[in-house]
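Sequence, please.
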């Protein structure tokens, strides 16, 4: 060992080949924090001093290669002035340039994940050997930035402009087969053979079978295109990426611009272009929002990990109520390795639930994410049942029957008598009080809420709801099961609507008020979609189900009558009365018919305006700013109330709940972060302009106090 630090080690074998091993002490993964970067620089300087060096292999002693930059440290760079941030970026460039300029061949032995800065280290090497189980990629655009350590310069020269733009702008983690096909790596082998294969590759260079210098020269040189070729490539890429990224996410288009400027330049000039563009993005509001979300996501996962640390694993689960929701829960559980009994009182409901799960497994097979054999085995993990025959073996039950308090109470009491005293009972309710549902149970301490979002296989959030008598054990085991299902659990306290629906219904209330004033729901939908929501409120109500929204609205009005009760009929009441329930019966605000893939296609029909006419009390002209304000103000205030009342423990958990549960625009960072960015005083001033609309538009006393003191939620 010629160098041994706390994160990097260097050893040289008898043949004169050095191995630089990344192994960050005290961490389960390698990441580029200041210590690792400093020691990597020292390691490279050490290697440069070796006489007659034949080659260098960069390897990892952990199961991953490098997961990327330490984001908690890296974000502190964004607060630096432009000159200091430029110096920081150049320091890393110098390390990677020194690697690419070593007087011998270099090979990256990618045994596991190599992302972001880890991938940029890999790109600075001459050759790359990748484990068949590893993944590589440049995900920086998902944080509102683009690769800043040479990725926009080296990757296009290695795999071509088209592929590089797709890798960088999409930010996806690439599997070994795709990486090899695109030319990002030179060989794919079993994980336990990566280092040996990398060493063999060095030997091939030593023996003159590979010319690393010619490869180096080719990858350093400017790329040559005719003006027409260049225009055609980049106009095509811009069209595809721009349509996907949208106006709120500037990083992908900025990456294309940087690549376009850099490909015709020398390596040195191209790196300087990358630095300038990176700094502009790093100082922008979108990067701040998306990085905050990333850190919040890490924080809530850490919280969930602490909660579930001592939980007993769920080895056998059950879901009550089949159909679409039950089938989705069953699929998610079985697909992640926890067998599940799916019980219903009707065979046709079981058939529907099994059909739903089977459709999802077949989709995974068609997309190449599962083999047919693995899908078949996972599907066998779902056992349909018309009786409680095997429920004595169940560790946790998810009740997912109709959203009716009396029916749920009856079913819960029945199943409680069929399971062991230790088993945990949960209810997949969206609004009904967990404390109320527990009233007739013999073991209320073993009962909590487990609220999934539809479609279950796509929506990452699970609300775990603590009732008055719910034990820590019940919460821990439910959180552990949600994690085992691949979900992000957030623990909330009991109240009507819990967190997500409690916040969502004031948003719908803002929409209903505008409808009563004669607003065009299509205009409102398009406005909110342009603002960044995945769908506007009318379309969202159709997807949720107008009947579901009608019943939930009654629960919310009873729970919070001072601000959520409304006089007379609103649009949801009217559509419910007309039995226009949305997508579930193909008519709501919009009408629906199957597209070529069998998915419901939204169609506007003029008849709806006449049907909604009885609820229109006046005609008000609303600007786009009015629409956004009237939708967002009540949502933000109710989110604050949930934090102030300890329904949810932190601003981070509240924001992630809204991002993962209802698709709150990520570029805004969540409702609490949005308030911080706007400034509480500016928000309160805006809300006061709409105070005539009622209590939903009144900021809390604490919000006004914080505004006066210029406080923020995230600094708190």
């Amino acid at each position: 060992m010629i160098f041994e630090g706390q994160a990097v080690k260097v050893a040289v074998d008898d043949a004169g080949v050095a191995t630089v091993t990344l192994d960050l002490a005290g961490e389960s993964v390698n990441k580029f924090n200041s210590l690792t970067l400093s020691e990597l620089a020292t390691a490279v300087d050490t290697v440069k001093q070796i006489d007659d060096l034949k080659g260098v292999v960069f390897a990892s002693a952990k199961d991953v290669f490098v997961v990327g930059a330490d984001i908690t440290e890296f974000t502190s760079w964004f607060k630096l002035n432009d000159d200091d941030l430029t110096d920081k970026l150049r320091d890393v460039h110098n390390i990677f340039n020194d690697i690419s300029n070593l007087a011998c061949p270099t090979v990256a032995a990618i045994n596991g994940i190599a992302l972001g800065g880890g991938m940029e280290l890999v790109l600075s090497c001459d050759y790359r050997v990748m484990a068949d189980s590893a993944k590589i990629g440049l995900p920086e655009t998902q944080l509102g930035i683009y690769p800043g350590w040479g990725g926009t310069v080296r990757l296009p020269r290695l795999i071509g402009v088209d592929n590089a733009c797709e890798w960088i702008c999409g930010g996806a983690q690439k599997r070994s087969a795709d990486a090899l096909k695109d030319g990002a790596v030179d060989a794919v082998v079993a994980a336990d053979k990566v280092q040996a294969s990398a060493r063999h590759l060095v030997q091939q260079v030593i023996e003159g079978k590979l010319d690393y210098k010619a490869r180096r020269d080719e990858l350093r040189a400017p790329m040559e295109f005719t003006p027409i070729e260049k225009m055609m490539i980049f106009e095509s890429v811009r069209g595809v990426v721009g349509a996907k990224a949208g106006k709120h996410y500037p990083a992908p288009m900025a990456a294309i611009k940087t690549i376009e400027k850099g490909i015709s330049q020398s390596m040195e000039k191209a790196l300087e272009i990358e630095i300038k563009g990176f700094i502009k993005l790093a100082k922008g509001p979108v990067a701040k929002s998306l990085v905050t979300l990333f850190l919040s996501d890490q924080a809530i996962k850490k919280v969930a990990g602490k909660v579930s640390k001592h939980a007993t694993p769920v080895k056998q689960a059950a879901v009550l109520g089949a159909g679409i929701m039950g089938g989705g829960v069953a699929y998610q559980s079985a697909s992640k390795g926890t067998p599940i009994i799916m019980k219903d009182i009707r065979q046709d409901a079981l058939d529907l639930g099994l059909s739903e799960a089977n459709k999802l497994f077949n989709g995974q097979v068609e997309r190449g994410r599962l083999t047919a054999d693995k899908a078949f085995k996972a599907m066998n993990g779902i056992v349909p049942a018309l009786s409680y025959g095997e429920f004595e073996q169940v560790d946790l039950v998810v009740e997912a029957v109709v959203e009716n308090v009396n029916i749920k109470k009856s079913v819960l009491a029945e199943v409680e008598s069929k399971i062991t005293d230790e088993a945990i009972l949960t209810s997949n309710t969206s609004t009904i009080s967990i404390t109320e549902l527990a009233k007739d149970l013999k073991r209320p301490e073993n009962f909590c809420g487990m609220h999934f979002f539809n479609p279950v296989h796509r929506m990452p959030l699970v609300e775990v709801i603590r009732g008055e008598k719910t034990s820590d054990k019940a919460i821990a085991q439910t959180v552990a099961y949600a994690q085992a299902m691949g979900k992000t659990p957030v623990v909330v306290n009991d109240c009507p609507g819990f967190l997500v629906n409690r916040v969502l219904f004031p948003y719908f209330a803002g929409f209903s008020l505008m409808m009563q004033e004669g607003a065009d729901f299509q205009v409102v939908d398009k406005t909110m979609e342009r603002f960044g929501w995945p769908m506007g409120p009318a379309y969202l109500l159709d997807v949720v189900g107008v009947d579901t929204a009608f019943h939930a609205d009654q629960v919310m009005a009873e729970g919070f009558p001072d601000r959520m009760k409304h006089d007379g009929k609103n649009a949801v009441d009217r559509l419910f009365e007309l039995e226009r329930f949305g997508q579930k019966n193909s008519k709501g605000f919009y009408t629906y018919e199957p597209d070529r893939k069998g998915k419901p296609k939204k169609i506007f029909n003029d008849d709806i305006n006449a049907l909604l006419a009885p609820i229109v009390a006046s005609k008000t002209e609303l600007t786009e700013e009015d629409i956004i304000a009237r939708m967002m103000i009540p949502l933000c205030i109710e989110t604050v109330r949930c934090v102030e009342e300890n329904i949810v423990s932190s601003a981070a958990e509240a924001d992630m709940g809204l991002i993962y549960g209802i698709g709150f625009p990520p570029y805004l960072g969540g409702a609490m972060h949005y308030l911080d960015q706007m400034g509480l005083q500016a928000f309160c001033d805006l809300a006061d302009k709409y105070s005539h609309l009622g209590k939903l538009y009144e900021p809390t006393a604490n919000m006004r106090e914080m505004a006066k003191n210029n406080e923020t939620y995230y600094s708190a």
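The chain has a mean pLDDT of 95.
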